[in-house]
């Protein structure tokens, strides 16, 4: 599952560079009041184009979740669990799903457990219809990395293309990071 941010880019680079695994990269266009979808989308396209040339080919797909008219911001990790399930049963032979969770993120142990519970419950519904593989492993290839290790995994040219900000500010010709959201602040620690 790929967002265009640093953590999932590090994960993608690791999987492309260090494994022979056949990959299906999936991005969710998260549209909500924060208006981050377009900025993320541009980063995703740029990073993936670069990775294809630099590493090896992979399958790519995306889907969209549109919540712009809601006041409340949907919880990303739950949306990811739901979409991951749908993508898994859409991918013949899929037995593993990789997410870019980091051990150092706040509340990650609880959050990862809840995310996995959502996935398992949904997957069980699909299995009841005989869809998907019997067992799907939920993997977190960069879980034990520090933010510095994450940055080191990603070649500089690719790092510049990633996008972290959740509340991008529209400027002529694109967007600039707000500099104040949680994701922007985490990025300054690198
Ligand atoms: Zn920001």
Describe this structure in words.
The protein has seven helices and six strands, in the order αβαβαβαβααββα. It is α/β, with parallel strands linked by helices and 190 residues long. The chain has one domain (6-188). The protein has a two-stranded parallel sheet. A two-stranded parallel ribbon has the order 3-4. It is globular and about 50 Å long.
Primary descriptors:
two-stranded parallel sheet, 15% strand, alpha/beta, 190 residues, globular, 7 helices
Topology, pairings included?
Blueprint: H1 6-18, E1 24-31, H2 37-54, E2 59-66, H3 76-89, E3 96-98, H4 108-128, E4 137-139, H5 147-153, H6 156-159, E5 169-171, E6 174-176, H7 182-188
Helix pairs in contact: 1-5, 3-4
The protein binds zinc ion.
Short description:
The chain has helices spanning 6-18, 37-54, 76-89, 108-128, 147-153, 156-159, 182-188; strands at residues 24-31, 59-66, 96-98, 137-139, 169-171, 174-176. With 190 residues, it is α/β, with parallel strands linked by helices. Strands 1-2 form a two-stranded parallel sheet.
């Amino acid at each position: 599952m790929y967002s265009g941010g640093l953590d999932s880019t590090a994960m993608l680079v690791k999987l492309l560079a260090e494994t022979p695994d056949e990959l299906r990269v999936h991005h969710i266009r998260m549209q909500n009041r924060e208006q981050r979808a377009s900025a993320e989308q541009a980063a995703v396209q740029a990073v993936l184009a670069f990775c294809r040339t630099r590493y090896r080919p992979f399958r790519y797909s995306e889907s969209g979740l549109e919540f712009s008219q809601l006041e409340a911001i949907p919880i990303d990790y739950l949306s990811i669990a739901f979409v991951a399930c749908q993508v898994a049963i859409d991918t013949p032979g899929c037995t593993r799903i990789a997410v870019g969770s980091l051990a150092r993120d706040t509340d990650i142990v609880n959050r990862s457990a809840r995310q996995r519970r959502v996935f398992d419950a949904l997957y069980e519904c699909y299995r009841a219809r005989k869809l998907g593989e019997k067992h799907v492993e939920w993997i977190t290839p960069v879980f034990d990395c520090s933010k510095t290790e994450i940055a080191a995994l990603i070649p500089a040219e690719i790092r510049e293309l990633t996008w972290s900000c959740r509340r991008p500010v529209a400027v002529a010709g694109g967007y600039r990071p707000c500099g104040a959201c949680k994701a922007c602040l985490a990025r300054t620690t690198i």
